[in-house]
Write a structure and sequence with these properties.
The complex is a heterodimer of chains A (114) and B (112).
Chain A: E1 4-7, E2 10-13, E3 19-25, E4 31-37, E5 43-51, E6 54-57, E7 64-66, E8 76-78, E9 87-94, E10 103-105, E11 109-113
Parallel strand pairs in A: 2-11
Antiparallel strand pairs in A: 1-3, 3-8, 4-5, 4-9, 5-6, 7-8, 9-10, 9-11
Chain B: E1 4-7, E2 10-14, E3 19-25, E4 30-38, E5 45-51, E6 56-59, E7 62-67, E8 72-77, E9 86-94, E10 100-102, E11 106-111
Parallel strand pairs in B: 2-11
Antiparallel strand pairs in B: 1-3, 3-8, 4-5, 4-9, 6-7, 7-8, 9-10, 9-11
Classes of the chains: A mainly beta (114), B mainly beta (112).
Chain lengths: 114, 112
């Protein structure tokens, strides 16, 4: 619901591998965000993008990369440089018009390093 | 830097009592303050929000108050029910960077 989807729901990664998490929205939102949530913790911003072909680092960008080639899509790659990637990853987009400031969250991807 | 402090980290109340969660923000450019409810393993869900030009907003059993001078905002839940049990997060949106800064969360437990 909310028009923002993430896949896969669960992802297992071997050490040393890069993995890419998908985030797609059909809400025609310009802004998109990636957050990391560790067990019992709050949300920490990894990357965000205000517009296509532009993105900025958040507070914990090291070991992650993103692209924003299309308005609907904001994939996150967890690289081997991220030493402790096991976490719950949430993608969000920010609304337009009357809901300009409201963030809509995707269902999340739970990443586990084996 | 930008920071949002949230208290308490855990809160237990009897069913029917009220619950209050408080947040303090540091960025003067913040102009939008949402509150989210997150159940275990699920995505955060927006439950109420307030803009900087408003001092109070209410939606049934939930209300939010904002004191811009003190940089404080609070969530008030009245007549709590067991289904209110969850983790609640406050956040502040900077009008300059459009970054949302989240509090560390409050685990609310409503005892039947």
């Amino acid at each position: 619901d909310g028009g923002i989807t993430q896949s896969p729901k669960y992802l297992f990664r071997k050490e040393g591998q890069n993995v890419t998490l998908s985030c797609e929205q059909n809400l025609n939102h310009d802004a998109m965000y990636w957050y990391r949530q560790d067990p019992g913790q709050g949300l920490r911003l990894i990357y965000y993008s205000q517009i296509v072909n532009d993105f900025q680092k958040g507070d914990i960008a090291e070991g992650y990369s993103v692209s924003r080639e299309k308005k609907e899509s904001f994939p996150l790659t967890v690289t081997s440089a991220q030493k402790n990637p096991t976490a719950f990853y949430l993608c969000a987009s920010r609304g337009g018009g009357g809901t300009y400031n409201e963030q809509f969250f995707g269902p999340g991807t739970r990443l586990t390093v084996l | 830097g930008e920071n949002v402090e949230q208290h308490p980290s855990t809160l237990s109340v009897q069913e029917g009592d009220s619950a209050v969660i408080k947040c303090t923000y540091s960025d003067s450019a913040s102009n939008y303050f949402p509150w989210y409810k997150q159940e275990l393993g699920k995505r955060p869900q927006l439950i109420i929000d307030i803009r900087s030009n408003v001092g109070e907003k209410k939606d049934q059993r939930i209300a939010v108050t904002l004191n811009k001078t003190a940089k404080h905002f609070s969530l008030h839940i009245t007549e709590t029910q067991p289904e209110d049990s969850a983790v609640y997060f406050c956040a502040a949106l900077s009008s300059g960077t459009y970054k949302y800064i989240f509090g560390t969360g409050t685990r609310l437990k409503v005892l039947a």
